[in-house]
Design brief:
heterodimer, A: mainly alpha, two-stranded antiparallel sheet, two-stranded antiparallel ribbon, 7 helices, 4% strand, B: mainly alpha, 4 helices, 0% strand
């Protein structure tokens, strides 16, 4: 493998497909999307197959993830928000498993590509907008008009609210993308130091312990980040859905 | 089928070169395009994300979420049912305890009543016995007193006769003469102040 921190994000075609001038090849990214779905769905499906009244350990893991997302959604968007539970649960599990799968050496991290996280963020914001207008009609626009603001400040406040709403898909997608990208680059850079220092004889091997320790520590941190970013993505999804359900604040 | 795109054409020679020459990343990857910003891969990523995530969403909403929700619901129902059963049993136990306490109190009352009557009866019997014994004793005492009186009277009557005889004997011995019984009796009666 190349000692190049960017190489891990390279997309390579496994099955080239082109339809109407569009490159729709099955790539390593597609493979890991399939893997993520297979792993997450397979785990949830198999561990709950017994429907045990007293859960086995793995069944508890599935139930815990369910209840974790359920309480997150109930706290964030109220009990009405539970109609979006399958979506939030799918997003959380998909991002979490994709992030964790990316922690394996030589594995591809699908959430390290902006287009993927942006698509997921647009799914969330699109749901908010469509559901908001469908449910509340034009009252959904109350979202941009906070109550109790003096008349003179109103145009300014409305402008800020609109900008903050429009920046949501960007912040939501860039946060996840940048965290995964930066983490993997850092990890690769420090791991690269170990290899290059190790090739410099006895002194080099002695010094290589420092970046090695750093790599180990960063690996732990990256597992935390992998979980945390999935959690943050799901929590923000819940908060945005709350706007669709209760636009009047 | 296999269509060579510019991205692929550029990445293939790169694979061979950069591991040994360590060329700068810019030259090795897609002609300087940072992979996440390489728009030639966007269509494919979006398509496969839509397929995989759509499938995942369907699986979650149709199979997994109802299943886990059902498991949790079933467990909650079962726990509520068990709690109901437990409170019902507790009530039963409380009732049984109350009935037992009641019966115990009744039995205690009954026992003390029985003891009371027994004590009364025994007391009455003892009282009667004491009364009859006392009556017997006082009758005996009266008899004894009567006989004492009789003996005393008889003894007092005898005292004079004994004194006459003693005085007659003493006079006979001391004076050698004899006195009549009548004289002695008169003398004694005078001495004893009768």
């Amino acid at each position: 493998m190349a000692n190049d921190p960017i190489h891990q994000f390279q997309i390579t075609k496994l099955v080239p497909i082109e339809i109407g001038g569009l490159d729709l090849s099955f790539t390593n990214s597609s493979l890991f999307m399939v893997g993520t779905v297979a792993l997450a769905a397979g785990f949830l499906f198999l561990t709950t197959a017994n429907r045990g009244l007293v859960p086995s350990r793995l069944q508890s893991v599935s139930e815990m993830s369910y209840e974790f997302v359920a309480s997150m959604l109930r706290d964030g968007a109220g009990s009405q928000g539970m109609r979006f539970f399958p979506m939030v649960f799918s997003l959380f599990m998909f991002v979490l498993v994709a992030n964790l799968l990316g922690m394996f050496p030589y594995f591809f991290t699908i959430t390290s590509h902006l287009i993927v996280t942006f698509a997921l963020a647009m799914l969330v914001v699109g749901t908010v907008v469509v559901y908001g207008f469908w449910k509340h009609g034009l009252h959904f626009l109350n979202l941009f008009v906070p109550q109790g603001v003096p008349g003179i400040l109103m145009p300014l406040v409305v402008m800020i609210e609109v900008i903050s709403f429009l920046s949501r898909p960007i912040s939501l997608s860039v946060r996840l993308f940048a965290n995964m990208l930066a983490g993997h680059i850092t990890l690769k850079v420090f791991a690269g130091f170990v290899a290059s220092l190790g090739g410099m004889g006895a002194l080099g091997i002695g010094t290589a312990i420092l970046p090695l320790a750093m790599t180990v520590a960063l690996t732990g941190l990256e597992f935390l980040v992998a979980f945390l970013q999935a959690y943050v993505f799901a929590v923000l999804t819940c908060m945005y859905l709350n706007d669709a359900l209760h636009p009047g604040h | 089928m296999s269509v060579v795109t510019p991205a692929q054409a550029q990445s293939d020679p790169a694979e061979g070169t950069h591991s040994e020459t360590g060329l700068p990343g810019g030259e090795t990857h897609g002609g300087g395009v940072f992979p996440p910003f390489d728009s030639s891969t966007f269509a494919s990523q979006l398509l496969w994300l839509a397929i995989t995530f759509g499938l995942f969403y369907l699986l979650m909403s149709r199979v997994i979420v109802p299943r886990i929700g059902g498991i949790l619901e079933h467990r909650r129902d079962r726990i509520a049912q068990d709690l109901d059963e437990a409170s019902r049993l507790k009530e039963e136990a409380d009732n049984a305890i109350a009935a037992y306490e009641q019966e115990l109190a009744d039995a205690r009352k009954k026992a003390s009543a029985i003891a009371e009557t027994a004590r009364e009866k025994a007391k009455a019997a003892a009282e009667a016995e004491r009364a009859s014994t006392e009556a017997g004793l006082s009758a005996k005492m009266a008899d004894a007193e009567k006989s004492i009186f009789a003996i005393k009277a008889k003894a007092l009557a005898d005292v004079d006769t004994i004194a006459e005889e003693a005085a007659t004997d003493m006079v006979k011995h001391l004076l050698g003469g004899s006195v009549t019984k009548a004289e002695v009796a008169a003398a004694i009666r005078a001495a004893s102040g009768k």
